[in-house]
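Postdoc handover notes: sequence design on the structure in folder B. Input tokens:
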């Protein structure tokens, strides 16, 4: 499909944009949309830089990127993964309005609307091979694996809680770790 190749071939190049992307001087809504477009691309590309334990997926089951809480991505995340595969399996997006609705997923973006529920969320995820990603204050230091932040110049940065990644039995590529600020804190109990 025309237009899909840039997402498939981007890999590390798209992750490198973390260090170089800066929001244009547009209105706040346009900046937010552009920011979440980039974050959606990064979520998709994390699949290439994270290894899940063998047997994580049932045979022929899709890889699932989940969004918990209010969805800041709109249809862009669906558009990015449409017709894409990882290790021969399709990639799908699922949205969960609440923690009770949480299904099996491999990457879980936790929306800021769920910030007050982090202790419960991390209790449910404890020991499960789910890459947890968020973009609000305290996410990584409270037990999340990857937090998106913006520096004063407007560039997207990654903060990775390596201890939380290890506790989820995931392995991250050194290429991804080099692009991030690595924190090594135990997940909140």
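Designed sequence:
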């Amino acid at each position: 499909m025309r237009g899909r190749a840039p997402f498939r071939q981007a890999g590390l190049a798209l992750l490198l944009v973390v260090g170089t992307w800066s929001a244009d001087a547009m209105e706040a809504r346009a900046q937010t949309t552009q920011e979440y477009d980039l974050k959606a691309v990064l979520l998709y590309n994390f699949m290439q830089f994270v290894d899940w334990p063998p047997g994580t997926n049932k045979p022929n089951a899709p890889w699932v990127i989940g969004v918990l809480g209010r969805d800041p991505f709109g249809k862009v995340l669906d558009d990015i993964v449409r017709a894409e595969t990882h290790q021969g399996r399709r990639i799908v997006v699922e949205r969960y309005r609440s923690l009770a609705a949480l299904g099996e997923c491999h990457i879980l973006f936790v929306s800021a609307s769920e910030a007050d529920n982090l202790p419960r969320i991390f209790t449910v995820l404890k020991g499960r091979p789910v890459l947890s990603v968020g973009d609000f204050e305290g996410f990584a230091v409270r037990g999340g694996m990857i937090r998106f932040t913006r520096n004063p110049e407007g560039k997207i940065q990654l903060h990775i809680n390596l201890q939380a990644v290890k506790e989820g039995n995931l392995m991250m590529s050194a290429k991804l770790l080099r692009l991030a600020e690595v924190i090594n804190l135990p997940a909140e109990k």
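Context for whoever picks this up: Helices lie at 5-20, 28-46, 76-81, 118-125, 162-167, 174-178. Don't rerun without checking with the PI first.
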